[in-house]
Structures are given as structure tokens and as C-alpha cells.
Design a protein that fits this description.
Blueprint (H helix, E strand, L loop, with lengths): L1 H27 L7 E5 L5 H10 L2 E6 L7 H18 L3 E3 L12 E7 L8 H11 E10 L5 H8 L11 H10 L2 E12 L3 E11 L9
Parallel strand pairs: 1-2, 1-4, 2-3, 4-5
Antiparallel strand pairs: 5-7, 6-7
Helix pairs in contact: 1-2, 1-3, 2-3
Length: 213
């Protein structure tokens, strides 16, 4: 029954999800270094699948269990991610949101696509992402303050942390965390409301620990 639901969700959500994933893949792929990629907060797994299929990256999916109000994650994103992980041979793990269950420098690049603004402690998540990377992070974030109801409606989530920042505020946050910005790319999407996004290509500053003052 669970597999039937996963297939139905994938069929219904697929046209939108694959189109969005194709756009994100085109933005992400040129900035990936090496073949080992961690998709942290992987959602439905569509972007990870295209990175594997189109570009040959070995992508591991990592996410947290859905909280009680995360209906979109529970009933749509994570069932689809399980289906795609099985279909395309993508390793998939779950963790509690604190310590990433991989050794230091396990991945060439860690991707966090629209993850940090939903984290209760984004600095800790970023610190862990740096630890398991070999130096490069790709962070994609909304960069205009979107109303909480719109974000909740898009993601079918209620009671989840909302810590949106402007692009300037994200830059300040990254600098405070000891990360330097190598590249930025802005674009907009339309989900019934206009949403501005930025891709930040980040690397750890030499001699600094993430989160250090």
C-alpha cells in the first residue's frame, strides 16, 4: 500500500517537481567539485536524481523525520524520495537534525537547497555541513521575506521554524560563520506569489572554524 501511494504521489507531483529540479540542477551542477555530493534536506529527491542521471554525481540523500505539522514531507516528499532513491540507486539516510551521521570530509560538496530557513539552529546545521564536506557548500535560499502563510502553503507545513533572511542578511550570516562567498546567482520563481532566490557558493575561510567569532 505504501509503495502504491508513493507511485501515485510521484505521478501527481512529478510534472512540477521534475521541472523545478531541472532548473535547480542546471544552477547547481557547474559548481559541484568532485563526484561525492550530500543533498542535505533532500526533500522529494528529484534534484538528486537529475544530478545522478544527467551529470553522473554520486548523491546521498539526507533528511530529518517529518515533524507533526509537516504534511507535505510526510505524505508527498519523503515517500517520493524513497521511491526515487530505490529506482536510481541513491543512498538515503535519516537523522535527528543535530550530528550528521558521516565522518569528517566525507563529501566533495554539500548542497542545502531551501533548508536553512526551516532549521531551529541554522548555524549548527551549517557547521555540520562544513564538517562533512571537503570545503565547498552550495546554499540555495529565498532572499526576500516571504509571508509565513505562503511558505506554509507551498510546503504544506505548519508549526515549522521560519527564519527567512534577505540576501544581505544571509551574507552577514555566512561571514559570521567563517564562510566566504565564491559566487552568487539570483533568480525568481512564481508560486502564486513572486519569490526571489539566491544560490550561494561557499567555502570555508582558511584558518577559521565555522561558527567561530
Amino acid at each position: 500500500m505504501r509503495r502504491v501511494w508513493s507511485q501515485l504521489a510521484a505521478a501527481l507531483y512529478g510534472p512540477v517537481a521534475w521541472r523545478r529540479a531541472a532548473d535547480l540542477t542546471g544552477r547547481i551542477a557547474p559548481h559541484l567539485t568532485g563526484g561525492q555530493v550530500l543533498d542535505l534536506g533532500a526533500g522529494s529527491g528529484h534534484t538528486a536524481a537529475l544530478l545522478r542521471l544527467w551529470h553522473g554525481f554520486f548523491v546521498t540523500l539526507l533528511d530529518v523525520p517529518p515533524h507533526p505539522g509537516a504534511f507535505g514531507q510526510r505524505w508527498i516528499a519523503q515517500p517520493i524520495a524513497a521511491l526515487l532513491a530505490h529506482k536510481y540507486g541513491l543512498p538515503r539516510r535519516s537523522y535527528g537534525g543535530h550530528t550528521i551521521p558521516f565522518p569528517d570530509q566525507s563529501f566533495d560538496t554539500v548542497v542545502l537547497a531551501f533548508v536553512l530557513h526551516h532549521c531551529p539552529d541554522p548555524e549548527r546545521v551549517l557547521r555540520e555541513a562544513v564538517r562533512v564536506s571537503r570545503g565547498r557548500l552550495l546554499v540555495l535560499e529565498d532572499t526576500e521575506t516571504t509571508s509565513h502563510w505562503a511558505d506554509a502553503l507551498i510546503n504544506l507545513e505548519w508549526g515549522h521554524p521560519q527564519q527567512e533572511r534577505t540576501r544581505a542578511e544571509w551574507l552577514t550570516f555566512f561571514a559570521r560563520c567563517g564562510l566566504s562567498v565564491q559566487h552568487q546567482q539570483d533568480w525568481t520563481s512564481w508560486y502564486g506569489v513572486r519569490v526571489a532566490h539566491t544560490l550561494f557558493v561557499l567555502e570555508r575561510e582558511v584558518g577559521r572554524e565555522v561558527g567561530a567569532g
